[in-house]
Amino acid sequence: MPKAWAQIGATEDLITYENAAKFGVLPANVTVHKGDALFPRIDTDKEIDELNALIKAQMEKAIAAQQPKAEVPGVAQIAFDDFSKVELRVAEITDCEPIKRAKKLLKLQVNDGDGSRQIVSGIRKALRYIADPAFVLTEQLLRTMTMQELLRAMDEQIR
């Protein structure tokens, strides 16, 4: 039974939906007991201190996230000048099929505007919730040209 009913001296048999709209259900000699406040006052100073502590913790977390992270061993870092030399192309996936006896590999046929190419990609495990690999046919991907492809393309432009 909620605290409010106990404070006004209501018993279980008086607390019904039928009695909710009636006046005078409680006996005349019922004693009202003083109890805890049903809706206690909010200590604004305490609430403001808690909010400030929360804001301070979030700011510290954001500052820590902006700090440069330690280099991960085995991951190559390249300078911006080297990155600007890489040619990035958007390619449309024209065919996609799983490679037998491989859990992660998909064989993709892609067209980047210069012709069709075959790419083997390890994205099958990431797409495991998709039953049909042909779903990937609606997607496009970003690919880099290898140095051999870049030299071949430059050689073809010179001729």
Q: What would you note in describing this structure?
A:
It is a single chain. The chain contains four helices and four strands; from the N terminus they run H-H-H-E-E-E-E-H. The protein is of the alpha+beta class. A four-stranded antiparallel sheet has the order 3-2-1-4, with no helix packed on it. Strand 2 (106-111) and strand 3 form a beta hairpin. It starts with a helix and ends with a helix.
List keywords for this structure.
alpha+beta; 159 residues
Secondary-structure blueprint:
Layout: H1 3-8, H2 44-66, H3 80-84, E1 88-98, E2 106-111, E3 116-121, E4 140-144, H4 147-158
Please state the overall shape, judged from the principal axes of the Cα atoms.
Answer: elongated
Number of helices: 4
Q: Give the strand order of the largest sheet, numbering strands 1, 2, ... along the chain.
A: 3-2-1-4
- Which structural class do the helices and strands define? alpha+beta
Helix content: 25-40%
N-to-C series of helices and strands: HHHEEEEH
Number of strands: 4
The largest sheet is: 4 strands, antiparallel
Uncertain parts: none
First and last CA, distance: 92 Å
Q: What is the averaged pLDDT score?
A: 76
Radius of gyration: 35 Å
Strand content: 15-25%
